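Task: complex structure prediction.
Instruction: return structure tokens for all chains below.
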Amino acid sequence: MRKILVLVLACVLAGAPALFAQSTSKAGFDVYTDKNSPNNHFIPSGWMGDSGDLRMNDQCAETPAAGSSCVKVIYNPKKSAGQGWAGIYWQSAQNNWGDKNTGFDLSDFNKLVFKAKGAKGGEVIAKVKIGGITNKPDGTIAAYPDTVNAEFGPIQLTSEWQDFSLNLAGKDLKYINGGVALVFDSNQVKGEQTVYLDDVRFVNDPALKAEAVSTPMPFYVYADTRSLDNHFIPSGWMPNTASQDIKMDTTSKEKPQSGDTCIRVEYKNASGTRWAGIYWQQPANNWGNVPKAGYNLTGATKLTFWARGEKGGETVNEFKMGGISSGEFVDSDTAGIGPVRLTTEWTKYEIDLTGKDLSYIIGGFCLSTNIDVNDPEGVVFYVDEIKYE
Amino acid sequence: MKIWRKMRKYKAMHKMLWGFLVGFSLCCGNALAASGAKIERLKSGGFSLKVDGKPFLVKGVSYNPAPIGAGYDYDLFSDPAKPWLVDGPLMRDAGINCIRVYSAGKNVEDVRAFVRQMYEKFGIYTIFTDWLGLWDPSGPNYADQKWRNALKQNMLKIVRALRDEPGILMWCLGNENNYSFSAKTVYWSSPDIDKMSSEQAKQWERAKIYYSFVNDLAKSIKKIDKRHLVGMGNGETGYLDIAAKYCADVDVLALIMYRGPNFGILFDNSRRSFDKPIILSEFGCDSFDAYNKIEAPDQQSVIVMNQWKDIYRNTVFGSGNIKGKIPVCLGGVLFEWTDEWWKHNESFQPDWIVHNTEAGWAEGAYYFDSRAEAGLNINEEWFGIVAIEPDQTNGVNIRVPRKAYYAIKEYFASLNNAS
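Output:
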């Protein structure tokens, strides 16, 4: 009888990780050291965006940083699903997008460390994320959301293995399903690139302090198309018909104000809706339904940008920041200017942020206009150097 | 003796006449003081409205209570059922202090009686708006001097008739007339405009013509009426930069805005275009969910309350604790008091007795039903904060206040402002 009880208990304990979030040892919590390492946790099953642009081999034997293998990821920015980005999540269980309670309690740790290199040097990982699986595809909160949504990057690699560490001190790591994610952005790469990853683990550093919440200025929304300093994504097209009315090129080389490129916006009332606009959001398509998103831009006193019209006289109804207000996790404030009548010369504009609550900004920049204040045939205008200062 | 008696009689008559004159002037003096409205410029650069010397927050509703079966030509003031006698108490109980009407109907004397009754019985002011010919059957033509003169004379006639009514709060010239510059609503032009090289130039020229006319009208009104403010209706903020150049004599921007739960950057940014105080002269939310195809009084209430709170924190009453906030708003006129059952199919009379649930246009900021087919989510026949029912009492459709009515009532009761 006693033997049966011990056997049952052993089976229960073996099955426990599938039943509830586990506590872990304080030595370190491996995500990946070698293929098939018994200490590995999380599974690279969460493919996102232009997933067809990615190939991954997690038993690559090409000069691993340590042990017998490393992770090799090849990103070819073909935009196979039209997204312009691609990523992989290491998830606590196969394809767990927050609907299963299989996450881990990583409260004992405060740092993610890993080694990375590029095949040639210069490769860019747009983001390394920890947590962030919080919403279902329809935008509602997942049944078992991650308690943290931290991201770092972009990271530019060399051809040599380098150590990276990401400070998670002070963050809530009580339930982590999305252990690590790598995200690549087609705007930041010049063609196919290969990156390698090894020795990815969560550790505890007793001397590590939580980073003070302050964002260094200037904080760019857009510097140049491939700038690693860019933040927010121009994903918020308004209203539903905007894609019929707006053509936007963020790689325009038509007399940029500075650098190599600027943003060209062409607006016509093709749909008959008579107005259209675009929000730069963080993350993409965040209309206020993603928790722990956006940026804390406290300290910025103004948002500046340059703009010009193709012919002169083009009217942009509003240039603004913030103001996404319809969800549960909305912008903390809004400010803007407009209507603005453009000239053919680049002109610098400022949005005063004095006194504004910038602690949670998901709508980093927005422009909108309508046909009733413009040439009925449509207008073309340009924007460049959008930054918080 | 006879002479002395005549002198006594004369003195008595003199006293009576003097007493009458004094009494009359006091009465008129009070009437004159009762409707004096003034804009004060604050040190911060913002604005405050004073009525009879007291701070005043405009807590208004648009009022066109067309009964079921009536249409675009409904003339409120000549309605024998006098629905305002039913609506006035409800408005007063909710703390509403003014209504907005859009024309003088068929007889300005009926308007006078209406304004007087609303004020004397319920303490409710009237913002009198004139469409300035926008919906004339033959179409507007602001470029035509004769046409403008006729409009002007008509407006001045109305002002002369109503200026001494203590219940008049202010005049409002036009509504969304600026949408005609691009022919969004109606088209007007002139040979000189037609010769212009670009469509953009034509639109700007129409704007200059129209706003110049509005300013001329404002100046003319102020010559014959020194007690009332003159506002200018404008759809959204379009062309306000041009209006700023031509409408210096306008006192208030009466803006019509349907931007969902709040007004975005409007209040913090408006002075950059046109440095005048703002009244939101139309705003609101319909009470029908076009996506789920059900009534949505809860959603209407949530959005209307958000709108009101945004308005209030941008007035002198609500901005004090908000760092850096410059109050430019004088209050708002919610669209609207009751549902109008004719609006979805304006030209088809048989439909005026149907409470249509089809949406007529799209505004995604009203997020609760923005996923409706083709994005069409605005139901024109459902904007009332008071529903109406086919059954009548004394010729007036039964009123059923919606949740938004009660929410506004509670909110206004909680505000610490005068009036």
